[in-house]
Design goal:
Shape: globular
Helix content: over 70%
CATH architecture: Orthogonal Bundle
Strand content: under 5%
Mean pLDDT: 85
Number of domains: 1
Structural class: mainly alpha
CATH topology: MetI-like fold
Number of helices: 12
Low-confidence stretches: none
Length: 294
Amino acid sequence: MKPRLADRIATISFWACALLVIAILVSLAGYILYHGGKSISWNFLTSPPQVIRAGGGIGPQIFNSFYLLVLSMAFTLPVGLLGGVYLAEYARKSSWTDLVRLSIETLNSLPSIIVGLFGLLVFVNLTGWGYSLMSGALALTVINLPLIVRIMEESVRSVPAGLREASLALGANKWQTVCRVVLPSAFPGLVSGAITTSGRVFGEAAALMFTAGMSSPALDFSQWNILHPASPLNPFRPAETLAVHIWKINTEGLIPDLRRVADGSAAVLILVVLGFNLAARWLGRKIHRRMTAE
């Protein structure tokens, strides 16, 4: 086979595979949005579910999902960033680093249901917190931490060595080089890692059923005391996220309009994840240009 013909066949094959993936994604998202978009309204997005009569919404579930995202990323991002920087910049090749990487790979391959059972034992029972947002956030941290450490490590390693050498040649020490040269250059990859882990927070359900719970108390959004049981900001209250809500109403079927709520919830979940990814990428590019003076 001639090299030019082989190159053309390979190019067509790559394009066909890419278009196939895009077509599957668009058809799946389009199907969900078509059936669920009819149910989306302001009342649907702000009101709580109705168990007795139809017309309820998913307001508390949306708030719980975003609040759980904030709590989880507050633990995941600092630890993941420091772990990735350590493995990429400071750790030397040794049996210790091999053990750390083996542990990361093992944790990354654990099923979420196993992490949920671990969270039920440790974060729910041993701590005495019960089903709570804090238990769910720590369980999600266990799930996301191996992934974000690897992404952070690879992003830091991808920075050209010449930038480090130039910074050190100008008199900067190791820590100054990492903070002022390496991290700004690796910022797009760091943002991508944060986006990936955030998407897993929105879509996770199995681990949260055993840690955050499958019900939410009646929330009083005028109550700002975080220790009050009805306060939406209380991290030690049970909370049903949007993904758990979709699973629950489809399996239990207690509400009269479950098909409408399930389709609308799925559409909202896709729109939230898509909007969050687009906004985060735009913000990441903007901050990267400012930090690197492009």
